[in-house]
Structures are given as structure tokens and as C-alpha cells.
Design goal:
Length: about 150
């Protein structure tokens, strides 16, 4: 199976998000949450959630086999944004971001850490992250993972 550089980065980002302890495996519940988060009915229907923790190689094989790949990074990030934005306001608050990070097992971030993330992403300075701001910060993160220089 041959992945494009972009797919490799997307899969690494996704795997890292659901492996917050860097154990090298994703638990079945976290994988189930990830599939639900993608909000792709066809993927949800086709993917069999494993009963055992899966390593990165297994994760990539499952995703490459079942994900049609037509979705761009921005599409995936948009779906992630909508899932984090629980109140449907069109903005992510620090509380919503904190809840999402804790839900996916990244509870080690302090309130100050989450506030710093919001501050970095919040270009308008209103204390909330818009979809446009969210996409920019995610694209910046993606560039960092690829080793590109980011301003």
C-alpha cells in the first residue's frame, strides 16, 4: 500500500491525537470515537472496530482500505471543528476545546495550556476560535509536521 506524503501526515496526526500517551497503540474506544468524529456514514458502515488495541501499521491499513481519500485536510478539519463546537455557535470556546481534548485522552493539558492554544489560534482576539482560524492553525500544525518553515 502506497500513501501520498499528505496521507501519511494526516494518518500520523490522527494516530497521535488518539494516542495521547505515545504508547504506540490506539484503544478500540478511541478508534471508535475517531471514526464517529469523521462523520462519514460510508466509513462508519464499512469499518469494523477492532476489539484489541491497534498499532499505527494496523490503523493505516484499516484507514487506507476503507477511506475513499476524496476528503481534503480542510474537509476533515471542518468535520473536527463541527464536532468540537458542541453548542453550534460557529466558534470554539476554550471550554469546548478543553472538553474535546479531555474526551480524547489528552487531559494532561492545564487550563493555561488550553488558553494558550486558543490565544494562538484566535486571530480576531475575541476569545473564541472561528472555523477559518481553526483551519489556519491546523494547516500550520500540518506544515510543522512536514518540517516546513512556519512563521
Amino acid at each position: 500500500m502506497s500513501l501520498s506524503h499528505g496521507q501519511e501526515i494526516e494518518y500520523k496526526e490522527a494516530f497521535a491525537l488518539f494516542d495521547p500517551t505515545n504508547s504506540g497503540v490506539i484503544q478500540p474506544k478511541a478508534f471508535s470515537d475517531f471514526i464517529a468524529l469523521l462523520n462519514d456514514p460510508e466509513l462508519t458502515k464499512n469499518v469494523k472496530i477492532p476489539t484489541q488495541p491497534m498499532d499505527y501499521k494496523t490503523f493505516v491499513a484499516l484507514m487506507a482500505k476503507n477511506h475513499k481519500g476524496a476528503e481534503t485536510s480542510d474537509d476533515a478539519y471542518g468535520a473536527l471543528f463541527r464536532n468540537i463546537n458542541k453548542d453550534g455557535s460557529g466558534n470554539i470556546s476554550a471550554a469546548e476545546l478543553r472538553a474535546a481534548l479531555q474526551h480524547f485522552g489528552n487531559s494532561s493539558l492545564s487550563e493555561a495550556d488550553v488558553d494558550e492554544i486558543v490565544h494562538e489560534a484566535d486571530v480576531s482576539g475575541d476569545g473564541r476560535i472561528t472555523l477559518e482560524e481553526f483551519l489556519k492553525i491546523m494547516q500550520k500544525s500540518e506544515k510543522k509536521l512536514r518540517g516546513e518553515h512556519v512563521l
